[in-house]
Every structure is written in C-alpha cells, then in structure tokens.
Amino acid sequence: MGYASAVLILLTACTSQTIVTDDSNGGSGKVDTADTADTGSPPRDLDADGYPAGEDCMDLNADVHPGATEVFNGLDDDCDGIFDADGSWSGMADVEATAVYEGTPYAYALFCPVTGVRTTLQFTWTLACTPDADDALAQRLLGETLSATPVNDAVEQASWTGEVLVASTNGWDTDAQGSVAWSTLSAASLEFSLSAASLSLSAEASLTRK
Ligand SMILES: [Ca+2]
Ligand SMILES: [Ca+2]
Ligand SMILES: [Ca+2]
User: Fold this and answer.
1) Ligand 2 center to 177 CA (angstroms)
2) 203 and 115 both lie in a single domain
C-alpha cells in the first residue's frame, strides 16, 4: 500500500467516525439534523381561530379573540379585558314629582344626575336629586336630597327590570318600578315611576358609558 492510499483510508475512517458521534437522539446512530433548528413546540391554537393561547383569552372558543365583536353574552369577546358593557355609566334624568300636601298637589320638575357601574352580572346605579334649596315647601315635601337606587342590581344581558328604592333625606322611602335597556354597548335608557296617594313620580334618563 502506498503512502497516498494509506492517507485516503485514514481520512475515510476519520470522517465516518465523526458522523456517528452524535448520540443525543436515543442512540439510533442516525444524524440528528434537527438539533440546530429546534426552537420548541409551535404556539397552541386549540380553537384554530388564528390566535394562539395567551394572545387568545379563550382558546377553546373560536368566536373569542382579539378583534372580535363585543356582544352581550357574559364573555370578553375581543380580549380587551372588558366584558360586555362593563364600566362607568352616567347621564341626567328628567324627574317629575307631584307631592300632595294638605290636599293640594304640588308639582316639581327636576334634572338629576345618574351615575352607575356595570359589571358582567350587575348594574349598580344612583340617582340624586337636589330640590331647590330656596323652596321651603319642596324641601319639606321632597327633602334636601331625593335619591333612587335599584333594590336588586342583577342584570340580564342587555336589560334590567326591578324595584327602585326612592328615599328622601327627610327620612321616608318608597318603592318604584324601573327598567334599564341597553341599545348598544355604550348607550342605555333608564326609567322608573311610582304612583301613590301622597306622591307620584316618574324619571327618564339616557345613559352613556365613559
Ligand atoms: Ca385560538
Ligand atoms: Ca371586551
Ligand atoms: Ca361579550
């Protein structure tokens, strides 16, 4: 064997030995060419809506993902952290009250702020009227402040109906019947009324979400 042939055999032997030294794939003896490109598992997208878990706040519902349309369903459809019409609400109410004093009815028209906070299952709100401080009879009949709050603040998806507690700082209170109807995620109308021998009252307000 000549010198050149010996070197060729040696090089061939060394090359073969180098290829099989990677034994990290379980000892199969095959070259693991995927090692350098292996960056872990691909992102999960269980509902196959194009948004992987993490970015998709509900990866088991293809209707819920960033950019989806938020609707009244108790879910955060667009994954922005806000469910349905949750948030702070406010508006002004036109309130008409007629109080009977010594057989004579006295009518008052008031413009009263309403503030509320909606969470997925509740809408807590308060109306607060302040009759004319210079009108002694209004103060006597209605009080310094006349307020209204829902007795039960649990809401359906886009509506609420129930009893409203109307209370005066003069120390009396009475029940009214009311409702709130959401026309959109950012607009709602509120109304309530009562009719009793000594007091009748009606209130209407348009509310908007901040
Ligand atoms: Ca998804
Ligand atoms: Ca949302
Ligand atoms: Ca929703």
Assistant:
1) 31
2) yes
Ligand 3 center–CA 156 separation, angstroms: 12
Helix or strand holding residue 140 (H, E): helix 136-141
**What does the alpha-carbon distance between residue 160 and residue 153 come to, in Å, rounded to a whole number?**
8
Q: How many domains does the chain have?
A: 2
Q: Which ligand is nearest to the CA of 43?
A: 1
Residue 15 pLDDT: 43
Tell me, in angstroms, the distance from the centre of ligand 2 to residue 204's CA: 28
How much is the pLDDT for 39? Answer: 63
Ligand closest to 78 (CA) is 2
Cα 42 to middle of ligand 1, angstroms = 13
Residues 71-129 pLDDT 10s: 999 999 999 999 999 999 999 999 999 999 999 999 999 999 999 999 988 999 999 99
Task: Please name which of 52, 60, 116 lies closest in space to residue 90, comparing C-alpha atoms.
Answer: 116
What's the gap in Å between 126 CA and the centre of ligand 1? 40
Q: How far apart are CA 90 and CA 22, in angstroms?
A: 69
Please identify every stretch of the chain with a pLDDT value under 50, giving residue numbers as ranges: 1-36
Ligand number nearest CA of 47 is 1
Whole-model pTM over 0.85: no
Provide the residue range defining the domain that includes 145.
87-209
What value does the CA radius of gyration of the chain take, rounded to a whole number of Å?
A: 36
Same domain, 11 and 102: no
Q: For the domain that residue 131 is a member of, what is the CATH number?
A: 2.40.160.90
